[in-house]
Structures are given as C-alpha cells and as structure tokens.
Amino acid sequence: MEVGSWAEWVSGSGTLLAVGTSLYLANRNAKKKLLVSHEIKEMGTFETNSEYNIETLVVTVANMEITPVQIRDIYFFSKTISIKLPIKVRVGFATGNNLPCFVDPFSEVTFLVVYNDFQSKLKEKNVSGTTAGCILAVDESNKKYKSKVKLNISVNDM
Prior knowledge:
By secondary structure, this protein is an alpha+beta fold.
C-alpha cells in the first residue's frame, strides 16, 4: 500500500464528515422556548379617577431562545369543562400588541384582554361558577405553549 492513498482516504472521509455535519446543522429546526404568564390587573383609562379602571387580563409571552417566534393565537384552555376559547386581544391600550405578533430573541410581549369581555364569552358557552384553566400561546408552526400557573375565572360575579 502506498502512503499517499492513506492520506487521500483520511482527507476524503474527513471531507464527507464535515459536509454531513454542516448539512445536519443547517437543516435542523431551531428550538423554541416560550414562557407564558398571566395576571389580572386594574388598568387605568385616560381618566385619573380609579373608579374608571378596567379589570384586564394581562398575558405575557417571553422568548428564551435566539430565534424570533411569531405568536399566531392565544387561547384559554380548560380540561374540566372541555373548552378551548380563543382570546380576542384588545389593542385599545398603548402597551398591548396585536396578533399575530413577533417575539424577538430574549424579549417579551404583552397582550391585554378586557376581563369582562372574556367572562362574557365564557358565559355564552354556558360556563358558570369558577373555572380553572390555562393560557395557551400558539406559534406559526402550530406548537402550543401553556402557562404554568392556572387561571381561575369566576363567571358569576359579572
């Protein structure tokens, strides 16, 4: 055997390995990690009087990866009453975002929902009493991310 042939085989196999690795890295899907949280706040209107405040469901979606993610929909999901209710995001407030919305890497966006409108939608679906569920955010590839904390909604106190 010639020495040159071994060098050619080693360099050829190294080249194939490098091409295979680069193709794998180029074609793999980037991981997405979104954190979904929510809280109910009293948001002020243009009036300074606190009796004009509106009870608002504030949904925050944080992107924890280096790729931007597009949020397509937000839902309220409850296994106990078998409901998946789309949440209509309100943009009447200056800090709220529209759907669909891009979440930049290592940043967060906030969605605002008028809480009474949300309760009304549940009442239209014949839901009564206190209902526990979670908030789902759906991205452009139809992957669902849910909030870790349950959302308890009382429909009767409207």
